[in-house]
Design goal:
The protein has about 260 residues and is of the alpha/beta class. It folds into 2 domains: about 130 residues, Hexapeptide repeat proteins (UDP N-Acetylglucosamine Acyltransferase, domain 1), CATH 2.160.10.10; about 60 residues, Up-down Bundle (Udp N-acetylglucosamine O-acyltransferase, Domain 2). The chain has 4 helices and 27 strands. The strands form 3 sheets. Strands 3-6-9-12-15-18-21-24-26-27 form a 10-stranded mixed β-sheet. A hairpin with a 4-residue loop joins strand 26 and strand 27. It is elongated. The model has no long low-confidence stretch (mean pLDDT about 95). Involved in the biosynthesis of lipid A, a phosphorylated glycolipid that anchors the lipopolysaccharide to the outer membrane of the cell. Pathway: Glycolipid biosynthesis; lipid IV(A) biosynthesis; lipid IV(A) from (3R)-3-hydroxytetradecanoyl-[acyl-carrier-protein] and UDP-N-acetyl-alpha-D-glucosamine: step 1/6. GO terms for molecular function: acyl-[acyl-carrier-protein]-UDP-N-acetylglucosamine O-acyltransferase activity.
């Protein structure tokens, strides 16, 4: 028995694994590839040069792989890449990349994407993230693994959000957020370390204490950003249990392009 509903429109050139399910009234374009176990619910449109991995679940009324909302885009064959095991809820909009960046928008593995989320052109989202309802990313935003964006959080173009960061509800984010940091407000301000998230992911007490020490150095010591980077390098030696995490924080500071929330 076919797993494609008779009312769905699947272009003959689309490449779908035989196990893929497509619900009523969904539309799959000619340049789409979907791997095994993925379920596309009803009234979903998947178009553009879009590649989707295994075991994803698309709920109804999603727009996946549509043209970028960027006037500079002139129809170039840019891409959208989605990994494995993602849950993608109702009314989401994921756009293709542009030639002004890498030409691809990416979503990694095992992400939970709630209703009305927007991933704009050229966004790079890692794995194991959570986007609550109406979280919105402008173009070229990077989001690290295990980051959480609460409902109605809005992120300015080109911002970076580090791994394990937490963005509070209704936050207006116009600067980069270092790994492990919790921010909220409009404009966004730092509120501490995402301790609860780290505990849930099995971080040891020693690692969390090391991250908190690094946070205090960055935010409460009165050091300039350059001075804080040098001090963090010393902390890697002084706090070996958290050396990997402190190095990740220091490396992030070296790539921040919009300044950090501070």
């Amino acid at each position: 028995m076919s797993k494609i509903h008779p009312s769905a429109i699947v272009d003959p050139k689309a490449e779908l694994d035989s196990s893929v399910e497509v619900g009523p009234y969904s539309i799959i374009g000619p340049h789409v590839r979907i791997d095994a176990g993925t379920v596309v619910g009803p009234h979903v449109v998947i178009e553009g040069h879009t590649t989707i991995g295994k075991d994803n679940k698309f709920f109804q009324f999603g727009s996946i792989g549509a043209a970028p909302q960027d006037k500079k885009w002139k129809g170039e064959p840019t891409r959208l890449e989605i990994g494995d095991g993602n849950t993608i809820r109702e009314f989401v909009t994921f756009n293709l990349g542009t030639t002004q960046d890498e030409g691809v928008t990416r979503l990694g593995n095992d992400n939970w994407i709630s209703a009305y989320v927007h991933l704009a052109h050229d966004c790079q989202v890692g794995s194991h993230t959570i986007f609550s309802n109406n979280a919105q990313l402008a173009g070229h935003v990077h989001v690290g693994d295990h980051a959480i964006l609460s409902g109605y959080a809005g992120v300015h173009q080109f911002c970076k959000i580090g791994a394990h960061a937490f963005i509070g509800m209704y936050t207006s984010l116009t600067q980069d957020v270092p790994p492990f940091v919790l921010v909220s407000g409009n404009p966004a301000g730092q509120r501490g370390v995402n301790i609860e998230g780290l505990k849930r992911r099995g971080f040891s007490r020693e690692k969390i204490d090391g991250i908190r020490a690094a946070y205090k150095l960055l935010y409460r010591s009165g050091l300039t950003l350059e001075e804080a980077k040098a001090a963090l390098l010393e902390q890697e030696t002084l706090l070996p249990a958290a050396a990997i995490e402190i190095r990740a924080l220091r490396d992030f500071l070296g790539t921040a392009t919009r300044g950090i929330v501070r």
